[in-house]
Amino acid sequence: MKLTNNFGMPETILNVIARPQYSKGKANMSVTELLNSPRIVQLKRKHWEDLTEDAADMVWSIFGTAIHNILEHGKGDTHVVEERIHVELDGMRISGAIDLQEISEDGITVSDYKTTSAWAAMQEKKDWHNQLNSYAYLVEKAKGIPVTKLQIVAIVRDWSRREAQHKEGYPKAPIVVIDIPLWPFAEREAYVRSRISLHGDALFEMETDGEMPNCTSEEMWEKQTTYALKKDGNVRAKSVHDTSEAADTALAAATEKAKKSEKFLIEVREGGRTRCESFCQVAPYCQQHQTYLSTKANKE
Questions:
Q1: Residue 279 and residue 186 in one domain
Q2: What pTM was computed for the model?
Q3: 6 lies in which domain range?
């Protein structure tokens, strides 16, 4: 992959980005790859030499490197920091680097540090559940010691004291600990197995020039088109509907009850595939995305 510098980032920043600290070791796949879209993983491997990424899009990854240095400097006597764990399952060797393991008499608490937005810290993120439980599987499988707790340590990069004082659910401090539900061991193993199977199928199709499985709506961060009923001149919608028919019905009802001076209208909020359009490096090489763009253009 080629690193570009379209926005004139300083050389020191470029050097940090160009000297990656990450390695999956002697593994077929890391947990990060395992949780990713099988289609994206295979297209990245195929087109790696042709891909480009700008330094400006990688700035926040530098903070991840900085956090690891902080963990190493601040670890306690019962802490295991940045340990890469390998497990073989169904013929595939998987690895995961665990930010922090805290050892107690009862077992191990697994923590993952993330630099994130306040909005993300306020959401129930399925990806975090999948990642932490996959780590828990590796730890317990490799060490034979029970994992008793999972948590995200979120460093909120856009934290606002004012928002913390007035907004319900907003992080109360710039660093917050978010507990993640721990699945039973059998459920963790079944999940990891299911991901291995999906990636195995995609690899086979890639190597045999077959049809790789498409990305799911969730993997594409797809948002459906919605229809907002709004009072003319207002910013906020009175109601939002999944179909134009439902919106038309709501418009008719609102118009019937409206005063003579009031006017209502329907605002179409176009859906899209956010990841494909703005955050996927292999989109130019993805037939699924190109077909989507072609179909969208024909409709317009």
A1: no
A2: 0.89
A3: 2-207
